[in-house]
Structure formats: structure tokens, C-alpha cells
TrEMBL record:
<feature type="region of interest" description="Disordered">
    <location>
        <begin position="135"/>
        <end position="178"/>
    </location>
</feature>
<protein>
    <recommendedName>
        <fullName>LTXXQ motif protein</fullName>
    </recommendedName>
</protein>
<feature type="signal peptide">
    <location>
        <begin position="1"/>
        <end position="19"/>
    </location>
</feature>
<keyword id="KW-0732">Signal</keyword>
<feature type="compositionally biased region" description="Basic residues">
    <location>
        <begin position="164"/>
        <end position="178"/>
    </location>
</feature>
Length: 178
């Protein structure tokens, strides 16, 4: 009988302690989610102290810029407006620059300027991190995260990428040898 009572008390205590815990984890309001994701992706790489210091400096500069932009009016509503416009543009079949143009049309000039400043700060953060990493460290980062640190191909760089391939290269040699 005493064993049954002891087991019931232990069960009651565990149930009450579990009930005291919140049902859902609240979203962490501290820090910037972009910086957190980037830092998480860098956990796979062993960084030197100098690299860590440089990355933390770039992250704190980005967070300061991000805070200034939020105070200037870059609210969750503006970001939601961008997401909605992007989704609608993609659903209508637009791609690349067409999507960007449609998103810009949906924003006021002030909102578009804030978004542009945030994009520039984000790009600066990513390029400053990529500049610190060695090619071996970049390879050690998972593919999905690695793409964040690589510049996008496009414009002249994309056009010159395939230069010298194809046209006339190697054609007819097999026939001549046969």
C-alpha cells in the first residue's frame, strides 16, 4: 500500500511539473534570425579566433543596421507585404527581375528604400563572412548554407562563364581519325 501511495505521489508531481511548462516554445525575440542562421551554418567549420572575431564584428554591424532600419519603419507588416507580393508574382509566372519589379510596385518609395538598405546590409554581411573563410572551410559547410556565401551568377559574369565552350571545339576530330 505504501508503494502504491509513493508511486502515485511521484506521478502526481511529474504531471504537475510538466503542466507548469509552456505548451509551445515562444519565438526567441533576442538577436537577429538571419545572424543566428548564418552562425548555425558555420558551426560545421572550425574557425580561427581571428575569423570568429571578424565574423562577430560583421554580425554586430549588421544587427545595428537592422535595428536602425526597424526603427525607421521596416516593420513586420512591410516584410509581410514583400512576401505576399513575391508569392503573387511567382504564382502569376513571373521570374527574376519581373518578380522584383512587381514587389517594388507594391511598396511605397520609403518602404522600397528600407528594403533596399536591408538587402545591401544582408549582402555585406554574407560577403564579409565569405571573405574570411578558406575554400576548404566553404566546402565543409552544407550545400544549402554554402549557397548563401557565394555570389549569384548573372550579368556579364554569367555570360562569360561559358566562354570558349561548344562552338567548334572538338568537332570533326573523330571523323578525321577514323
Amino acid at each position: 500500500m505504501r508503494t502504491l501511495i509513493a508511486v502515485s505521489l511521484v506521478a502526481l508531481m511529474t504531471v504537475s511539473s510538466v503542466a507548469d511548462e509552456p505548451a509551445k516554445k515562444k519565438r526567441d525575440k533576442g538577436g537577429n534570425s538571419i545572424v543566428k542562421r548564418l552562425m548555425t551554418s558555420l558551426e560545421a567549420v572550425s574557425l580561427t579566433e581571428d575569423q570568429t572575431a571578424t565574423i562577430k564584428a560583421a554580425a554586430s554591424k549588421f544587427e545595428a543596421t537592422s535595428k536602425e532600419l526597424r526603427e525607421a519603419g521596416l516593420t513586420a507588416d512591410v516584410r509581410k507585404k514583400v512576401m505576399t507580393a513575391t508569392k503573387e508574382a511567382r504564382e502569376s509566372g513571373a521570374k527574376g527581375k519581373e518578380v522584383a519589379a512587381k514587389v517594388k510596385e507594391s511598396l511605397t518609395s520609403e518602404e522600397a528604400a528600407l528594403i533596399a538598405k536591408m538587402d545591401a546590409a544582408n549582402k555585406t554581411l554574407r560577403t564579409s563572412i565569405a571573405a574570411v573563410l578558406t575554400p576548404e572551410q566553404l566546402e565543409a559547410i552544407p550545400e544549402k548554407a554554402r549557397r548563401q556565401f557565394q555570389p549569384r551568377q548573372g550579368g556579364k559574369a554569367g555570360a562569360e562563364k561559358g566562354k570558349g565552350k561548344g562552338k567548334g571545339k572538338g568537332k570533326g576530330k573523330k571523323k578525321d581519325q577514323a
